[in-house]
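Side project, low priority. Logging it here so it doesn't get lost.
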Amino acid sequence: MSELKIIKMAESHVKDLALLEKECFSTPWTEKGLSDELSNPNARFYVAAFDDAVGGYIGAHNVVGEVYITNVAVSNAFRRKGVAQSLVGHLLNVSELENADFVTLEVRESNLPARSLYEKMGFEVVGTRKDFYEQPRENAILMTKNLR
């Protein structure tokens, strides 16, 4: 496998990311939704690239120093290779450089591998959102990492 590079999302990534969304999520973002983020000044979207292959991506919004992760997605072919950790780590570094106060996210209650990764990276459980997810209906665990 080639070297992992974390790069800023570009229009050329949108089709691949929309396919990745369909692979990973029951209610995926559309190409238009992803493309619209390119002109959003609050958006922070990064792609895990291996040569010409997209291995995953992370999306977040930084609103007045509060960073909200919208999605972390890794292709089945690239799982268990440190891709998600690299993406989250990159976003945390960017957020620190931008003097953000915290980074927060929701994760499915049943997604134990993701929850474990976030805990390992310093996120703490701060609450639950009942029936937050659909298809299937499930609670979200709210996790936050304070940066200050």
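Brief comment: The longest helix spans residues 83-97.
Revisit when time allows.
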